[in-house]
Amino acid sequence: MRVLATYSIKGGVGKTSAAVNLAYLAAREGNRTLLWDLDPQGAATWLFRIRPRVKGGGAALVRRKRALGDVIKGTDFDRLDLAPADLSYRHLDLDLDATRKPRRRLAKVLGDVAGEYDLVVLDCPPSISLVSESVFEASTTLLVPLVPSTLSVRTLDQLTAFLGQLDGRCPGLLAFFSMADRRKRLHREVMESVPRQRDGVLASSVPSSTDVERMGLHRAPVPEFAPRSKAAAAYEALWHEVGGRR
Amino acid sequence: MPDTPPHRFAVPDGTGADDVVAALARAGPVLVERPVTRRRTFYDTFDWRVHAAGGALEVEEDGAGARLVWRGGDGLVRAEARLAGRAPRLAGDLPDGPLRDGLLRVLDVRALLPVAKVRTTTTSVRVLDGEGKTVARVAVDHDVAGSADLGRHVRLVPVRGYDRALGRVAALLAKDLGLQPAADDVLRTALAAAGRRAGDYSARVRVQLSYGTASIDAAGPVLASLLRVVEANQQGVRDDVDPEFLHDLRVAVRRTRTAVRALRGALPDAVADEATGGFRWAQQVTGPVRDLDVHLLDLAAAGGDLAPAVDLLRRRRAAEHRRLVRTLGSPRWRDLLAWWGRVVADPRASGPPGPEAELPVARLARDRIARADRRVRRAGRAIGDASPAEALHDLRKRAKELRYLLELFASVLPPDDLGDVVDELKALQENLGDFHDYDVQEAALRALAADLVAAGESPATVMAIGVLVEDLHRRSQHARAEFAGRFAAFDRPAARRRRDRLLGVLVP
Predict the structure, then answer these.
(1) Which residues 75-94 in chain B show a CB within 8 A of chain A?
(2) Who among B80, B82, B132 is closest to A49 (CB)?
(3) How far is CA B182 from CA A154, B11, B189, B198, B394, in A?
(4) Backbone phi, psi, residue B89, to 5°
(5) Can you tell me the distance from the alpha carbon of A71 to that of A36, in angstroms, rounded to the nearest whole number?
């Protein structure tokens, strides 16, 4: 079972959109896929029209009083399930901290469903915290969306350094440009130069697009309501690149 | 988990998909999808292994392509995979993934054969909640198999985590439309329409005899059921579908020989003589292909260096198989089976009955089993560390004879003791079987190596065979060393007392 976490310290960079669309495409391709919405805002959960409610809250899952399998809901799409967010996830850090080996906890919880899914996508809250560290331990790959600017590249470097000094498991790090606007010179320059200077920057990028914004209107992944759009093609290319890498 | 509602309902004549949609729409928002027609071909092995594992395997084709779908007994999908190209025949042909991993264990070396073809037109209705989320799916299926209309059914497809919604829908369908849960699944109905039944063939033969039936009268059903197995497997042998057809055929021949030996004295002498000769010949002519099948299966696990050896064996096998096909079509073979069919249909009419014809079969069984058991023990006790391999191979044959007798006459033996006695015998047979197989393989490989050298094959191949021979030799030595302990366990007083109880000898 592969675990792919969409991760960013900052919010509003297209993390949830990526998680939702990649999970959708993975399932469409034939992979049994689970998307776990770890963000208390519950945007991914809402997009799939599922109630953001977990009985007992994050604490019950983390303390293993409730099995992950019992809270999972089927989405409207074949082979794609969702573990919903819950408002209590806002203090998931504290719940994790109360356990023994908090960094290993998410991996342990995911272990319960290992035989049922080929891919787990974790939509992480924007932060750097114990939840993030637990996500790092549990993930095969971190997928980091970058809005093409000098500051976000700096954030990538900080993340790379941070991961480098962690003991325990280190996930692979892949970055992709998100909300990219080729009309802006700075965007173009960053997107051309950065991949030459750093490893793990994917060739596919997701454009800044009204179709992505309209996910909130349709409450569905982009390829469902705009299959021939540039945004759909971008996510498909992104999935192709990410899906093939380990 | 709370009670799962039935997943399939029969739709009475006069009720259509529209009525189902209307009933659901009255209860809340629904989304109706365009009807989709799927061509479905169900597959199983000749001996119904997929069915035995619970569920069904099919290839589904619709506008979007072809898929392999493996459903469990509850109708829910266990695993699926896209299918590009031809339908799979062997487990090895399946696309990688959980479907293949699961089915490999179920199928082993047996081939998948089409068992039913159904055309299903499905109207899917999504039951929605207040957010527009699909909380349950209701499918109205119309199934047609060839010219047989199998009727309409409603299938409830649950959405994970929305069990209550499923329950409500099930209750609504039962109440508003009076739908009854369907007892059958589509495969069973399609098979019935073709006059078949899942599991209608099995290589295991269990004939119910009564204790007091005269042996000559018991002979008929026992021998007839074995003959049916032989006849059922012939076509599969001719068409070379998978190695098990020949294996099952030969086992049925061996059991027939055992049964004839046991029933000598009840059957007319001339019949027993003819059958003895005829089935000995049947076993001989089917031997070469089986030996090569086993040899090839053993080598299949080994790697690339052995490719020239495998090629040589395959060519030999092809030649032997052609010869076997000619034999199965020969007058001698056909006449043997035809004659035997007449005998087993009415053994009394086949000639003057033997002196034990009227002996109750339970007594005949006990007498023959006691003798076979003595032969096993005598031979086993005579084997020491210095005894040649042949002695163990001979004991293996005697043990097999005893086992077949226990199985053939199981219905007139006390079941509990029988189970234990068979388990003890199995443990001994396993050791003898391993030793035999390793020994035979080793000899075959040495001969093969010699042939390859004579044919000028590369040293790499011969050396690779050498490695296998070494390994087999080690294993056969290990099995040989284990024999003494295994036989001692088989021959211990407690086991012997159990055998005595089985055969009705009073234990003081």
Answers:
(1) 80-82
(2) B132
(3) 63, 9, 11, 17, 55
(4) -105, -45
(5) 10
**Nearest-neighbour CA in chain A from B406: distance (Å):** 42
CA distance A227 to B387: 77
Q: Tell whether A76 lies on the interface with B, counting CB pairs under 8 A.
A: yes
Residues of B in contact with A49 (CB under 8 A): 129, 131-133
Asked whether the beta carbons of residue A81 and residue B126 sit closer than 8 angstroms, the reply is no
Q: Model confidence over B143-175: pLDDT tens digits? A: 999 889 998 999 899 999 999 999 999 999 888
Q: Over the range B432-446, which residues count as b (16 or more CB within 10 Å of their CB) and which as e?
A: bebbbbbbbbbebbe
pLDDT given for residue B504 in this prediction:
83
Q: To the nearest whole angstrom, how far is the Cα of A88 from the nearest Cα of chain B?
A: 20
pLDDT at A246 over 50: no
Nearest-CA neighbor of A231 among A245, A216, A210, A217?
A210
Summarised one tens digit per residue, pLDDT across range B456-467 is 888 888 998 999
Mutate to test the interface with B, among A34, A49, A77 (most CBs of B within 10 A): A49
DSSP state of A87: G
The shortest CB-CB distance from B131 to any of A49, A72, A74 is to A49
Q: Distance of CA B153 to CAs B116, B167, B393, Å? A: 18, 18, 58
pLDDT score, position B505:
61
Q: Which backbone phi and psi does B498 adopt, to 5 degrees?
A: -65, -40
Residue B37 DSSP one-character state = E
Contact B351, B268 (CB under 8 A): yes
Our CA-based measurement puts residue A33 at a distance from the nearest CA of chain B, in whole angstroms, of: 13
Residue B11: both structure tokens together? 């739709």
